[in-house]
Amino acid sequence: MHGSPNGSAATPVTDIDGARFRSVLGRFATGVVAITGIDGATGRPTGLAANSFTSVSLEPPLVAFCVAHTSSTWPLLREAGRLCINILSEPQLQVCKQLAIKGGDKFADIAWSGSPGGSPVLEGALAWIEVSVEQEHVAGDHVIVVARVHDLDKHHEGEPLLFYQGGYGRFET
């Protein structure tokens, strides 16, 4: 029996294997974003890559993304005030990988300009969205961040960087 009409399942959620969870949910293709800001302590740009990003509300304009509790970059970004969400293009795979590493100069050899609020807009990104953190919700091993949109624009034309089944790729027409 797979479940009952009232929604209860035969297998409790606690019994789901992590590898199986990733494998099944990896069948949902997502775009990839870089969340960037200026570290207030050093004045240098910092950022992280995420594939959990969505629009939330038009009025007021809100978006959301998820960040792992283990992120050493998120505390720096949280304190930055204004952040920039960069929608990455297919040629930006190396940028994505560079922002995903722990430590070091994440912005070495990454070209960027400032958003109206001063956050890094990455050269080659398809679009940018300038935000400030509105709410944070603890959810398992991640934090769901709800952010208010202050400004946004298209940046470059191109194909999106996609994440699917544990790998990166592009959309084929």
From TrEMBL:
Pfam families: Flavin_Reduct. Transmembrane segments: none annotated. The keyword Oxidoreductase applies. InterPro entries: Flavin_Rdtase-like_dom, NADH-dep_flavin_reductase, Split_barrel_FMN-bd. Keywords: Oxidoreductase. The keyword RNA-binding does not apply. Residues 25-170 form the Flavin reductase like domain. Belongs to the non-flavoprotein flavin reductase family. This is Flavin reductase family protein.
